[in-house]
Design a protein that fits this description.
The complex is a heterodimer of chains A (251) and B (311). With 251 residues, chain A is of the alpha/beta class. Chain A has 7 helices and 15 strands. By secondary structure, chain B is an alpha/beta fold. In chain B, strands 7-6-5-8-4-1-2-3-9 form a 9-stranded mixed β-sheet, with helices on both faces. A 5-stranded parallel β-sheet of chain B has the order 12-11-13-14-15. In chain B, strand 11, helix 5 and strand 12 form a beta-alpha-beta unit. The N and C termini of chain B lie far apart (63 Å). The relative contact order of chain B is 0.12. The chains are: A alpha/beta (251), B alpha/beta (311). Bound molecules: flavin-adenine dinucleotide and adenosine monophosphate.
Chain lengths: 251, 311
């Protein structure tokens, strides 16, 4: 079973500061999306049960070679990285074409796993777009994946219920964060990660023509204004009095 | 006449899309058209809201396989001359959006909470950077799939002038087989509607402590909600109680936040509350900075005292 897992490099959102409502991204370290780590864990668990290998697929700026080590330490066997500083400016449609073209270079792919949404953009498009480009069946929002002979049984978690679905391989699956608890890599795994095989490409190597895509334009990107009172209360009595003053208690 | 096509498998969400579609259609001189797939009652409901409904009846189109739904909508948008398609940003809708956009060669924006037509451009507001910022974006091109957050717009009300016509579409056989659907407990409460929310996070010691939190919520006339880890990791509360980027966006009159650190993916779901109270034992927790009233204290003690005070 060869599983490709798509993981996006994102700025560490915990460390983004806001100045004059503008996000400040300088000096913010890069990391891999949280839900993408669930996708990796799902892939590694399948490999451990079925044999085969896990290929990490990621497209990002020049920091990616370093960021990707985290995933190689946590169980990916090899990496296919598309590194290009243009990538931070591209939208989901472009990224999907790039990832799909890269997948087509990998020999015998049985399953491609995505996160349900990337940590920063959280758009939930890329997995579906890649499935369509590759002409594969897809299943989104998986909360459990069970591999059978040449098919999958997947539980899909929706707002109003759980769907149990069967689909043939090869296929595309996107996972939710509740599917598993990603493992923490050990020190030896981290040391070994640097030696795992890596192939690095530029966008130009994929022979794509991206001019027909309707690009996304960003007019503004600002933190919402907030005008909270920020009153420190010391006791519950003070709090109750404050809420009574706001007419929120004893209405 | 060229148009805007709307589709959602959920009746209430389809009515919300109709409101957005009319806003764009009026500015653009387009006609609003609705696709209803294998859903006669929805066809009736939407035609009663005053639009032309295109009723698609084809058993090969199954909701569990977005590829078939996307193929049907691609056909429909072509036949009906609609370059703009509106969908709902629930899970099915988002999954469908990417597939349909790719089939159409369209640009796509999901999670849209506000829309404004500016000349040739449709400016859409959506969360960015995990919710730390709100971006205004538009698709530079004719073909657009716009995916609208549930409840961001009021559902369209009944209106004259609707009609229903049948539309035939062909799709390839599905490669996905639905084995079982287990509906969630319908007794579950709707935290988006609650005037008061008592929201608990990972500061809560144990599932047993939820009882006193429940009782506090009752006394305040509200419901209990939670941060994501409490539902997805600890499974102490159902997922429909989660507030935030991947949960619900709530606007209660009062939100009491207990043992929550205040990461952006959480606060994006509660920042529209009228009054926010934060209780966190860590004085440096970010949540204190975005609250109206904040207490550096053990939440369990505060809950106990509040329960006594409100008895
Ligand atoms: C793509 C994506 C989407 C996400 N979507 C969501 C979402 O929709 N909703 C969501 O909530 N999260 C979401 N998250 C997760 C989010 O990033 C945080 O991990 C989560 O909100 C943290 O929950 P918390 O504040 O309860 O826990 P923690 O961050 O662990 O905070 C617990 C807090 O409790 C305090 N505390 C501990 N003991 C006590 C005590 N006895 N009394 C008082 N205070 C105490 C601590 O000081 C701490 O501040 C998402 C993440 C990603 C990547
Ligand atoms: N640049 C990228 N490189 C690798 N995988 C990506 C990239 N962008 C998105 N993905 C994958 O697509 C999923 C959905 O992303 P999005 O559509 O941006 O929400 C993510 O969870 C990743 O699995």
């Amino acid at each position: 079973m060869n599983v490709v897992v798509a993981m996006k490099q994102i700025p560490d959102l915990q460390q983004i500061r806001i100045r004059n409502r503008q996000p400040v991204l300088e000096d913010v370290p890069w990391t891999l999306g949280a839900i993408d780590k669930n996708a990796l864990e799902a892939a590694v668990q399948i490999k451990e049960a079925q044999g085969g290998k896990v290929v990490l697929l990621s497209a990002g700026n020049e920091e990616l070679e370093d960021t990707a080590k985290e995933a190689l330490a946590a169980g990916a066997d090899e990496a296919l990285l598309i590194i290009d500083d243009e990538l931070d400016k591209l939208g989901s449609a472009e990224v999907a074409r790039i990832l799909a073209a890269a997948i087509q270079r990998i020999e015998k792919v049985d399953l491609i796993i995505f996160g349900e949404g990337s940590g920063d953009n959280y758009s939930g498009q890329v997995g579906s777009r890649v499935a369509e480009i590759l002409g594969l069946p897809q299943l989104g929002y998986a909360s459990a994946i069970e591999v059978q002979e040449d098919s999958l049984r997947v539980s899909r978690s929706l707002e109003d219920g759980e769907e149990l679905v069967e689909l043939g391989l090869p296929a595309v699956v996107t996972v939710i964060s509740g599917i598993n608890e990603p493992r923490i890599a050990s020190v030896t795994q981290i040391l070994k990660a640097g030696k795992k095989p890596k192939e690095i490409l530029e966008i130009g190597d994929l022979g794509l023509d991206l001019v027909d895509i309707c690009p996304i334009k960003t007019e503004s990107n600002l933190a919402p204004e907030s005008d909270r009172k920020r009153v420190a209360v010391k006791t519950v009595d003070e709090l109750v009095a404050a809420l009574k003053g706001e007419n929120l208690i004893g209405r | 006449m060229a148009g805007i096509l709307i589709y959602s498998d959920k009746d209430n969400l389809a009515l919300e899309l109709l409101t957005v579609a009319r806003l764009i259609a009026d500015a653009r001189g387009l006609e609003v058209k609705v696709a209803c797939i294998n859903n006669a009652s929805q066809s009736n409901l939407l035609s009663a809201a005053g639009v032309r409904v295109y009723k698609i009846e084809n058993p090969a189109v199954i909701p569990a396989d977005v590829a078939t739904v996307a193929a049907a909508l691609k056909e429909a948008s072509g036949q009906l001359d609609c370059s703009i398609v509106l969908l709902s940003s629930n899970r099915r809708g988002r999954e469908l959006a990417g597939r349909l956009a790719q089939m159409l060669g369209a640009g796509c924006l999901t999670d849209i909470s506000a829309v404004k037509v500016e000349g040739e451009q449709i400016h859409c507001q959506r969360n960015a950077l995990g919710g730390a910022t709100v971006a205004t974006q538009y698709i530079d091109g004719d073909k657009q799939v716009l995916v609208i957050v549930p409840r961001a717009f009021t559902p369209a009300s009944a209106q004259d002038g609707g009609s229903i016509v049948e539309l035939a579409v062909e799709v390839l056989p599905s490669r996905v087989k639905l084995l079982e659907f287990r509906a969630k407990d319908s007794s579950s409460v709707d935290i988006e509607e609650a005037p008061v929310l008592v929201v608990v996070g990972q500061g809560l010691n144990s599932q047993e402590d939820l009882a006193s939190v429940e009782s506090l919520a009752k006394k305040l006339g509200g419901e209990v909600a939670c941060s994501k880890p409490l539902a997805t990791d600890k499974k102490w509360l159902p997922e429909d109680r989660v507030v935030g980027l991947s949960g619900k966006k709530c606007q209660p009159d009062l939100a009491v936040l207990l043992g929550i650190s205040g990461q952006v993916q959480f606060t994006v779901g509660i920042r529209d509350a009228q009054v926010m109270v934060a209780v966190n034992s860590d004085e440096n927790a970010y949540i204190h900075q975005i609250a109206d009233y904040s207490m550096v204290a053990d939440l369990h003690q505060v809950v106990k005292e509040l329960n006594d005070a409100l008895a």
